[in-house]
Amino acid sequence: MKAIYPGSFDPITNGHIDIINRASEFFDEILVAGLVNSKKQYLFSTEERRQLIEQSFKDNKKVKVDTFEGLLVDYMKEHNYKAIIKGLRTVTDYGYEAQMALTNKNLYKEAETFFIHSEEKYSFLSSSMVKEIYSNGGRLSSYIPEHVEKALLLKVCKR
Ligand code: PNS
Question: Distance from the CA of 13 to the center of ligand 1, in angstroms?
């Protein structure tokens, strides 16, 4: 069975990568689907986010990458996905994720959400935290892959 892992990935972190690689042990294909929301301001463009994700999985042939706009369930119906993978870091995530899983199920009866618990070392990690640490000169090597760190450096240099 194939599954979809949606998110903003601005940028992808080691926490996302860990969940996706672990999910790929149980599913035939994981599609990492990056949200394109014209109302949201991203640090990385859609294409940059896609490339950073692709580079993160160059050694995992089960992982594919795409972007989507609008409702996740509409993309799922169009491309024949029924399984959604989500990572859970803390109990705080659960409230929001449960609401999202129930909303998706209400919109699309066949959608099932599978939760995978984050490893403890990533339980505090988020893309926003990465950007915050980076903009304050903190060390990031254990939170993001090297190619993402380089992309962040370029982004900051261009500003
Ligand atoms: O990485 P994020 O920002 O926490 O990911 C959130 C995401 C992309 C999974 C969520 O916002 C989403 O699925 N957006 C698409 C719009 C949608 O389908 N909304 C209805 C479900 S609440």
Answer: 17
The model's pLDDT over 50-100, given as tens digits with 9 standing for 90+, comes to 999 999 999 999 999 999 999 999 999 999 999 999 999 999 999 999 999
Count how many Cα atoms sit within 13 Å of the Cα of residue 87 in the half-sphere of its side chain.
Answer: 25
Contact 34, 65 (CB under 8 A): yes
pLDDT at residue 158, rounded to an integer: 65
Where on the phi/psi map is residue 55: left (φ > 0), alpha (ψ -120 to 50), or beta? Answer: alpha
**Residue nearest to ligand 1 atom 16, measured at CA:** 71
Query: Is-contact 5 20, C-beta < 8 A?
Result: yes
The Å distance, Cα 72 to ligand 1 centre, comes to 7
d(CA 72, CA 70): 7
Residue nearest to atom 12 of ligand 1 (CA): 72
For 112-133, the pLDDT digits (tens) are 999 999 999 999 999 999 999 8
